[in-house]
Amino acid sequence: MSASRSFVTVFPTAEIQALQWWLVADGALETKGCDADPLLAAGLKLPSVEDEPVTHIALMPSALVLVRWHDPLDDMTEQQALAAARLAAQDNSLDVENLHIAAVVDEAGQAATASVGKDIMANGLLQLQALGIDPDVIVPAGWLIAPQDEAVAKADFGFEKLLRAEKMIAPDEPSLRAHLIGDNRVTVLPEASVDRALVDAAHNATLNLRSGAFAKKAQAQMNAQQKQLLGWLAVAAVVISLLIPVVQLVKYHWAAADANAAALAAAEPVIGAVESVDEADRRLDARLISENRGNIAFSVPASALFSAIQQTQGVSIERISYRKDGTVLAGLTAVRNEDMNPALIALQNAGFVITATPRTDATGSSKADVTVRAP
């Protein structure tokens, strides 16, 4: 654990209870107490607003968790040994469906498991989270006590007294002591030794019940350097997003300049040297007009007129003539003047400039004198 401070509490076992707590800072026990709101009593903020990282550790009472050591099997990797230990713990349980198991290989190289009810884990975590505590580690309290040679250690954590042997962690119940340890000598650990075990809890809590389905969700944290880098990346993203349209605009400008240069080069043999595309357009239009070509050629407005008439029922052309300015003059006839409107509208939609003067002849037929000129 990298945090310089750790906050140790009892894992709650009742709906409402005051929890014992210990605050460790810089390798020493700073303060301790027993309160209904441990964070407030210890003077700590919620983890989300805490200035410095704090490792939160919860101690699971030995009466709620069963710790077992399992005989090693030959030719097994560590992962295989842990998997076999979990299976053995399940085989020795009467309520497999409600069983949560954590496993670890201890300092002696032997697999150990801690088994606890899923309902106990879920309820205790909810109570701790209601107090603003989301523990990083949940460890059997007796796991923090180192076993002694040729003796059974008795530790008093305040919330419970427990016995610790080389392969045993159990609550110190007078009626069960003889059955558990027989004639073995019991050494009562002084309060200073228990406090030392709590100080070292962040380093010795290897048998972590906060695993599997109850593993703590990782929260991404950034230091000042990472935040500064993220800020610069955000600025760079904004600058790049602004530069992209600018670069495209410059590229379009260059492409348009190249196209204009190519157009002027193509027009120069026809109309001579010119300085701009607009001037080249004017000269080309003037030359086409003088040669009766381009949009003022008879075929352009005439073909548009015939196309519009062909698509309009009941309208026919009586006469047609052409002027040098590109205007086609035509006489249309129909049963009614309204019948000519679709053809005239089609010409207008095609971009031609038209005029229409309606009249009626001696037979009562509808006539119209029409002019059509290309734009």
Can you describe what's shown?
With 375 residues, the protein is of the alpha+beta class. The chain has three domains: 5-221, Nucleotidyltransferase, domain 5 (2-Layer Sandwich); 225-275; 294-373, 2-Layer Sandwich (Gyrase A, domain 2). The protein has helices at 38-42, 78-91, 118-130, 174-181, 191-199, 201-204, 224-271, 277-290, 299-310, 341-349, and strands spanning 5-10, 19-25, 28-35, 54-60, 66-70, 99-105, 111-117, 137-140, 152-156, 161-165, 168-171, 186-188, 315-322, 327-334, 353-360, 366-373. The strands form four sheets. Strands 3-2-1-4-8 form a five-stranded mixed sheet. It has a four-stranded mixed sheet with strand order 11-10-9-12, with no helix packed on it. Strands 13-14-16-15 form a four-stranded antiparallel sheet, with helices on one face. Strand 1 and strand 2 (19-25) form a beta hairpin. Helix 7 packs parallel to helix 8 (277-290) and helix 9 (299-310) packs across helix 10 (341-349). The protein starts with a strand and ends with a strand. The model has no long low-confidence stretch (mean pLDDT 85).
